[in-house]
Structures are given as C-alpha cells and as structure tokens.
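Quick log. Single chain, no ligands specified.
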Amino acid sequence: MDRKIMKELIAWKDSAYRKPLILQGARQTGKTYTMLELGRKFYENVAYFNFESDPSLSKTFDENISPSYLIPILSRISKQTIIKEKTLIIFDEIQLCERALTSLKYFCEEAPEYHIIAAGSLLGVAVNRSQFSFPVGKVDIKTMYPLDFKEFLLALNELNLVELIQDCFNTNVPMPQVLHKDAMSLYRTYLVVGGMPEIVSKYVETKDFLLVRHLQDMILASYLNDMSKYNTNNEIKKTRQVYDNITVQLSRANTRFQYKLVKKGGRASEFENAIEWLNLSGIVNRIYRADKIMKPLENYKDIDAFKIYVSDVGLLCAKKNILAEDILYMSDELNDFKGGMTENYVCNQLTFNGYTSYYWESERSAEIDFVIQREGQIIPIEVKAADNVKAKSLKVYMEQNKPAYAIKITGKNFGFENNQKSIPLYAAFCI
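-> predicted structure:
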C-alpha cells in the first residue's frame, strides 16, 4: 500500500542533517508497518523493539542510556548486528519508556551515524501528562495520518483517475461526466471506509462493508480503552463524554463546539482537559476561529471558539452507526448530518496535506468553513455537501477580505468563475 509519507522518510534517511525521528499519530494509522517497510526496502537490516509487547525492555534503559552502552545490548536483544548507516533501529510504543525517549538526545549528540525511528500512538498524551524529559531540538518529528482520498484511490488501483483529477484541478477543466460520476461514487465509499490502512486493505480485498464496520468498531473500542489506560481517573468519564458528543455537535447547523451540548450547564473548565487529551492523542482535530484575516492567522485565533472533527471520517460514520447504504446513496434521513460529515472529510484532507485550518465568522452570521494559508495567500474554502453552489457567506467574505481567489468544494464539476475555483468533493486532496 503506497503511503505518501514514505517519500518524507526516504528524504530523512538521506539527509546530512538527519536526527533521530519521532513518528507520531493515532493508533492504527500504519506507523509500525511503514517503519518496517522503510527498513525492508532501504536498509540492510532492521533492529525492532516494542516497549508494549516486551515491557522488560525498559530495564535496559534504566541502567545507562549512552549509545556506546546501548548498541551492543540492543544488538544482542534483537539478534541483529547493528551497523552504522545500514541498520534501521526502531523503538515502537516509546511512550511507555521515558528513558528510551531521553536516549534519543544522546544518539543525536554522540552517535548521529545510527538511524533511529521512534513511534508512539499516545506520545503527545504521555509527554503532556508525565512531564517526560523530551529531547527538544534533538529529534525530527513527523505525523502519520490515515490514508487520504488519493491514497485510497491508489489502493483501489485507480492511478489513471488520480492523475486525471489532479490535471483537472490544475487546469480548472471539467472532468468527463461519466468519470465525475464514478469519482463521486468512490468519494462516498471513502466516507464509509475511511483511511485506516488495515480497513482499507480488507475493503480492497473483500468489498465487504460489514467487515469494514466490524474493524472500525474494534478501533473505536481500543480508543475507549486508551482513554481509561492513559488518563487520570477523574478525566476518563469527561473524555468519553466529549468523544461521544462529537457526532451530536456535527449534526447541528452551527458546528462550533458547545460545552452545553456535552452536559447541561457544561463549562470549559470542566472539559478542556478532556478535549486536550483527545487532540494530543490524534483522535480528533481541533480548528479555531480566526478573528482577523491577516498573516499569520495563528496570531488571530480565538481560543474560546473552535470546532472538533474526528481524525478519520470512516470512524466518524461508524461511531454514529450509520448504515453504509445510507451514505453510499446519500439518504435524505442523513440531511442533518451531511454538512458536518462533509466538513469533517474536508478538514481531514487539509490536515493530511499539512495545513493548519481556521474558520471565519462575520458579525452578521456569515461563516466560512475553512481558511488556510496556501502558496503565500490566505484562501477561504466553502464546503457544500451536495450540488448546491450558492455561497452567500463566501460572497460576504470576498467583499470584506479581498482574497486572491476562493475555493468552493461541492458535488459539482471543476470550474473557475467570479474568482472562485470550484472543485468537486473528491478533489479536496489536491489542495
């Protein structure tokens, strides 16, 4: 399965300024598989260590964490001769061993010729809660996400369709209608399946939506287990309450997060730690309102106004327990949820492409779903779940802020008119 992060990992391997790499991200996004695949294809051998499956491994790091001490022991444990530049050393689930995390600093300073990748599904949570001695400035960091829609299409052997979508995006020329229809159908399939690698692989193999839902339920159960295992006792219930409530928030016309919907009389002071846990774990994405459309947008974010989206749209639909057929045929019964689900999908595609997204509101309730900095410009993005292309809020935004252009994402084909770049929902990965 082709993952676009592999190019980044190869560049890391070949860099003269390489530091030990931390690969972070939510569970089941494919971190372990990708690290092992990198080692298999581009190194002579791999020395793999998992602190979850082998808890006794941590004792090795209790004694001494200097590279000269560790390398001979790690070679013996892994039964691999660890050779400078030629062996990939992998520390998996490193959040379970603080000393192993700290050792990365010394590998950077004393033995940079060893290639090390460390991964942790809940590394952000562990570092935040346990106050680890994080090797600031001594590591490279990359984030692993679920498959975006492009990677999903490639898994389905749709390379020609991917190339045509990218070409139409660049030229603003409409897709042939029959291919546009096929791409929209595949987009709806992606809403059901999502981008978790194991689930995509099983779908490609079986086309069985019942199996897909079973696997999604297993991942959701593992997330709930993590909320109990890697959280303080008084935060477990609150974290689950917030997570369970996200689908409710996304079913409302105004998808801005409201504490009162989690619990009657709910306040930020009660749930802010729970939201932070979910965000650090990679389970959700949080985007803030931008009070001013000026660079840098980060300076003008309103920390009290935000939206929360689930990091995988397939898991969102599974969590809502929506039938695959209702999504594939866009049942009218989903009308209240379609808008939030579509926003969630677009937010994921933007996040996977490295954007930090914001949203915008006018004083008179006009709202733009996403605002990003793209190629040096601040660009508004309006999202519609179907063929509806009326965008009154986008008109208000453009009159007030005079962007270089705007992007409108709907069920309609490609085009460019009135300084608005129209792209179909399936092309969001091109942005």
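Residues 5-143 form a domain with the Rossmann fold fold (CATH 3.40.50).
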